[in-house]
## 1
Amino acid sequence: MSIVLQRRFVGRRSNIRQNCSGAAGKRLLFAALAFVAGFSASAEVSVTPDVVYGHKDGMALIYDVFTPAEANGAAVLYMVSGGWFSRWQPAERRMAWLGHLLDAGFTVFTIQHGSAPRFKVPDAVADVRRAVRHVRLHAERFGIDPARLGVHGGSAGGHLSLMLGLASDPGDGEAEDPVLRESNRVHAVVAYFPPVDLEGIVGPNERFPALEFDPADAESVSPIHFASADDPPTLLIHGDQDELVPILHSERMESALDEAGVANEFIVIEGAAHGFRGEDGRAAAQATVDFFRQHLAAPGD
């Protein structure tokens, strides 16, 4: 089988067709899959559940930590968010779909935020920013390098991942709360089928109540407005048959990243709708692992 690669660079373009997947293309069209690996989290994993990173309206904000036996020192913060609902699950159940990252040696933090319907998109953005600060503050406890943090999520989780990557701040050195003194900057972003522009869709919404907030605030939580030259490398993966979050969102995000000079890759999975299943999911997972391996490698690796 062959994979069609379209490489796009600022200032020049070239289209290449080849029979292997080893070359790193900036935009790849998966017309067929040469190889799909299975992931099982086969190595021993230590689980630290329900770590409290903050409180909101008397409720704890939590994340779970999954540390593989052969951890490589880098961390991936996975955004537990679909439609900005952030539902609790036992940590052991989550581990089943983290196998590709754990097998690759990444310590994984599954970040839960204040959930819809009670909390809105700006609340979720604030929560995950605090989570990054908390992870950085406690990096030594979890055996990770605070200079090697990646973020990852799909749909609403992809939106939150992009907000973390593109709209970070160094923290407030004068804050009384030690968490708030920490930076929320991350070093690599992987976003699946993310909504990147919320302007025009904010308002009453029975299906996605997190969008029911002041439209004047929509720009402040739309990643499309925040690309800048110092942003971390970003991987976008989207299906070209996605009707819930049309691929135009990722196409526009790619253009904004290109214009700002941000290193990025865009993978289009042909025939895929919203959410990846089967071979599509495994292909996306492998691309995610490869991207984090490249951009979260230890110095000298």
## 2
Amino acid sequence: MDSLMFEKMWNECERKDLSISKKFWDLRAEEFNKIINDSKEENIDLVKFLHSKHILNNECSILDIGCGAGKYSLQFSKHVKNIIGIDISSKMIEYATQNMKNMSIDNIEYKVAAWQSLKLDDYNWTKKFDLVFASMTPAINSKDTLLKMIEASKRYCFMSGFVYRNDNIKNQLREKILGKNEIYNKKFENNIYYAFNILWNMGIHAEIQYKSVQWNKEWDLSKAIEVYTLQFEDLEIENSRDIIKSYLESISDNGKVKDSVNAKVAWMIWRIDK
């Protein structure tokens, strides 16, 4: 298939309403901030991987797209010259900024910005960064957002995402709300697939590594209802909130909702200066 076909399929999956994304990540900012310390081993593995590519050094500049509460940028700061981290969520940026101050780090700048609508010329970011980094972020959700990564980089781009993910609660809710709609069910697992093939058709041959991951989730019932409602809100399906509320109430235990997630993640890296 040519690039236009992959572009079309990716566009069909794109979440259009950025205000929903902002609400969703604002809602989850505290949760993501708390797990930063729990993912240090994963962070170290990624730092080692980037070091093996001779990317991280004291002259390196990084753009961290969808930086969240600073999970990766805080780690990278020890190895590079400077970093700019952006996120659509102002609450994520608040946590990232506070974490930076708490760790006495002075080579990161955090900004509230949506990558999908950001214009590189407004920030003088064209060909500015040695590494444009986008880990597990829905901000890279179309050919345009992918090409913008390339335009901002002068050396490397890194993107990671799910190629497989199984969390029982979300699967059950998808089926109750949508039926067995495979297009929706798989759309977030296809970002790497679409990006890799678009790059391939451009003559860019990205390198991919796969990692198996597992984690547990626990929310208060009210928080779980809000999180899952926002995940399905842009589909504008009548009574979806009622369906979600009813199901989560039925599986809650002492006001808590618990789930276990098993997934496979792809790390994809490519060089643009050769």
## 3
Amino acid sequence: MELSMIISHNHSMNTKLAEHQNRLKKAENLSLPLSEALKLLDGLSQFELGRFLLSNRGLNGYWTAYIILYSMKKESMHPLEHWLLYKSPICLATKERFKIFQEQIQAHLQDNWTLASIPCGLMDDLLSLDYSNKTNINLVGIDLDESSLELAAQNAIKHDFKNISFLKKDAWSLDIESQFNLITSNGLNVYEPYDEQVTLLYKQFYNALKNKGILITSFLTPPPRLTSQSTWNNINSDDAIKQQIIFSEIIQANWQTYRTEEQTRAQLNEVGFEVLNVIYDSKGIFPTVIARKN
């Protein structure tokens, strides 16, 4: 990286840090004392994942894959990054959700199927499956982010998977009819606050699936601070508070749209899906839904 680019990047990060600091100093009812909040903010600025979150308030395909799979290959890391990856309830639930997705996709997989990942990110959800006893499997990665598509293509080469194609499309504007036997989709509805928009998203998936096609998706359940009916469980209270201040109060993450199982079932049923199963992770945070096109 050229020196001018490094200086520009550092200046941008310093500006962003100052903005966060000023906002926190004016904030009321923080989950932790201001001094601790500012210390966490400084900690986030010390590693790349933290800086990305501070700048973008969310994750892209690369950083989602990093949290789920690739961070395990890192020999050393900042203590706060280690906490995020190995103790933060939402990150632990995300990793478990990924494993549940893989188990369910593998269980439904049949010969001559075409599978789509929307948004595909690095497409580890499909590329890391075992296709050794299946024939004529085709994969399609769909994403609006050009860099994610490029990284997914590189990932396909690494996995030596040939029957794969990519489409740069908005998930809300797929305009695909009866092409896929299975669609896997994670991480879109958590960014969308309007229920009618999520229902429209599910309609796009429904249209893109073949008759009896399978949708494997997920939703984020509301935390105990928002409802007494929360399904969250087995969560250390200190970790819950730390997560709250990092994601909600410092980063102000834009993926904090929560829905219940009842809401999700209703949205899927409305567009024609039959919900076959809802599988909760051990913390009750990030359930997996298996639905079938009727």
## 4
Amino acid sequence: LFAFGLIAIGIAPGQETFVAIYSKNRPEWTISELGVYTNRSVVVSLYDTLGTAARSFIINQASVEVVICDAEEKASALVKCKSECPTLKYIIMMDACSKQFKDTAKQAGIAVYGFDEIEQLGAKLDPKPSLEKPKMDDLCTLCYTSGTTGTPKGVMLTHGNVIATTTVFQYLTNVKLSNEDVLISYLPLAHMYERIVENAAFQCGARVGFSRGDIKLLSEDIVELKPTMMPLVPRILTRIFDKVTSTSN
């Protein structure tokens, strides 16, 4: 429905359309990603930690037409930079936003839609267009590096790249996921590591639960979601270890 909703508001499917996702981990992130892929379009991930200059650079370099955003504060920052980002035409809000924000965006030349609204428009679209499936060599995502100096560097990954990496991940790590498994999504989906592991989970019918994105609440999220698998990096493991040892002492 989300893929059809994008078409309903005038966003053309195909490899010429670049859609940015600017959000913390949540179900709408993944729904947006899969909807964009369904339309053979390209996902551009924006980190929460990006500064104004880096964010505008990415939007301009990728000619981003649509940004799917979670919070009004971040969306307002995009509207303020409209003069620096002439390709930006649409903002799709995951959370509710104020009328004042919508009016300000409209004055800047940006149309604002709610996430649920896009799905509803997709459901109502009639007739529904026949969509061409993505090809292995199609561009899947532009993943911008987070740890390099100077301007952000966009890594061009095809659907074939992602499928191959997901397959190799399962083979080399000997991970045998099933529909009994639960993955907790904590690491940023703007990173490919998290997306690859989630792809592996979906391929095997496993479930994905989304943490609240706060390291202080992570232990509570783990208790609630009861994950059998958790993608992490050494820095996070160190913080968990320090918290456990300090509590035990």
